[in-house]
User: Which sequence fits this backbone?
């Protein structure tokens, strides 16, 4: 988005009330220009061609064509930055996760009622400004969204089966696609995986269920006090920091609602810092696509503690923000594309197990 002019936004929502309230709030921001509001995807299509907005907000449930079908067509023929503003319903959450997989760059919860618009617009303004300050967003279909590109799951190495350890992953903008790309290429016989994906409360359970349906491993939304099990990935719930703690030979989860870190809860740095404190374990850390610097300091701490750390390469990032910061601070042992990461995870455990045995 050019920094020399306001960010041009089109609001796509079938509710005239929501369009007016969002539009009025965004128009008060000097660096945002609302080019209009569209009640359905057909009107939105014409307005996109006419006004050429930098970004659209997108409701999921709309007349004549639902938001998912519209987004698929947009990403195929006219890629544009899209932020989903979705209701906190079970169906709405699942559809929003699918929208992120298709190519939406973020999702904001719409609890319902005019009283909630202030909170929604505050978050929306933050996202728009973060996008403006971030490196350019890569608006292409992800590998995860293209079934023909999906690779077969590789069997875990002997080292992966033997290792007492954990895999920690952090991601933000574009991370739902990136996580699916990586996790669907991993077998179920690896050490436990703990994940922070920046996502609002109410959406992470649907996200975990989506991954569980396509991965060889079991994927769940993390609960407090769980014992981490091999072959399972644990997604930090929205609005809760996820911490891993040692209790004898067991690893357990702890959830907290401590202050946001980098304006995020859950925060990648909180998870990575806890993993860096673990003793006597083989640890592999991945930092994937996202805006800002969350996870960079935590990755440095993990590397200093002896973990093997992998930052996503710019070539496969939707936004090369968080990985770029980790690389610049010396936190990354390896820099790799999403498709290279599964092999590096296996190699990392082989190296860690061999080092411990020698």
Assistant:
């Amino acid at each position: 988005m050019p920094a020399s002019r306001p960010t041009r936004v089109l609001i796509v929502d079938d509710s005239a009330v929501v369009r007016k309230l969002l539009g009025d709030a965004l128009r008060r921001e000097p660096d945002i220009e609302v080019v209009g509001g569209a009640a359905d995807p057909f009107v939105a299509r014409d307005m996109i061609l006419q006004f050429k907005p930098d970004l659209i907000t997108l409701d999921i449930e709309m007349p004549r064509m639902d938001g998912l079908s519209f987004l698929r067509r947009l990403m195929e023929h006219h890629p544009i930055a899209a932020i989903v503003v979705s209701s906190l319903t079970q169906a709405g959450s699942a559809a929003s996760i699918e929208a992120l997989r298709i190519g939406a760059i973020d999702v904001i919860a719409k609890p319902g009622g005019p009283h909630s618009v202030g909170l929604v617009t505050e978050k929306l303004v933050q996202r728009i400004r973060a996008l403006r300050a971030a490196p350019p967003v890569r608006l292409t279909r992800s590998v995860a969204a293209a079934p023909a590109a999906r690779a077969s799951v590789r069997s875990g190495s002997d080292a992966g089966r033997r290792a007492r350890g954990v895999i920690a992953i952090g991601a933000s903008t574009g991370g739902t696609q990136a996580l699916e790309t990586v996790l669907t290429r991993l077998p179920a016989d690896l050490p436990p995986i703990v994940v922070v994906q920046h996502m609002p409360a109410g959406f992470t359970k649907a996200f975990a269920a989506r991954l569980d349906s396509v991965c060889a491993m079991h994927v769940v939304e993390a609960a407090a006090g769980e014992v981490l099990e091999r072959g399972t990935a644990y997604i930090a719930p929205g609005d809760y920091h996820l911490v891993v703690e040692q209790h004898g030979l067991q690893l357990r989860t702890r959830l907290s609602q401590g202050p946001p870190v980098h304006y995020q809860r859950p925060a990648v740095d909180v998870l990575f810092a806890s993993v860096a404190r673990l003793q006597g374990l083989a640890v592999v850390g991945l930092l994937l696509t996202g805006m800002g610097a969350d996870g960079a300091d935590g990755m440095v701490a993990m590397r200093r503690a002896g973990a093997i750390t992998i930052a996503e390469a710019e070539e496969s990032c939707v936004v090369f923000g968080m990985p770029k910061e980790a690389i610049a601070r010396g936190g990354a042992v390896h820099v790799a594309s999403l498709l290279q990461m599964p092999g590096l995870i296996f190699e990392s455990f082989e190296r860690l197990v061999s080092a411990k045995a020698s």
User: Anything to note?
Assistant: The longest strand covers residues 32-38. The domain at 7-133 is CATH 3.40.50.2300 (Rossmann fold).
